Amino acid sequence: MPQQPSELDREEQENEFVQAIAAVERSLAAVKERYTQIQVDRQRQAQLGHRREDVRQSLRQNPLPQLKQELREIEQELETIELNLESSLFSWGSIKQPFWQAVRFGGLGILIGWMLKSYAG
User: Fold this and answer.
1) Cα separations (Å) of 38 from 19, 21, 68, 80?
2) Which phi and psi (to 5°) does residue 92 adopt?
3) Does the pTM exceed 0.70?
């Protein structure tokens, strides 16, 4: 017995909704991962900043080539961390619009589905 068109439409909408939820979950996982990386980078940046100051003070007292090399390496790593933080930082403004669109249209779809279901019987 073939399915009625409304059943096919409902199944198609359900599949689209499930796919949209999966996409949102993947995006959320990526945001959580990036947030964790940002926290780690900021902590490492603070540690390197303190170490840089210590090396600079030691360098003033005793200018050794090893200290100069260590200072260059620290500054290079700090630049790399800063670039990583700047390149992929997200702000609420950048995710606000997609988030609210998902909430609005997802909620609207659920409400329309409930209304149609109650109307159809």
Assistant:
1) 29, 25, 28, 13
2) -60, -35
3) no
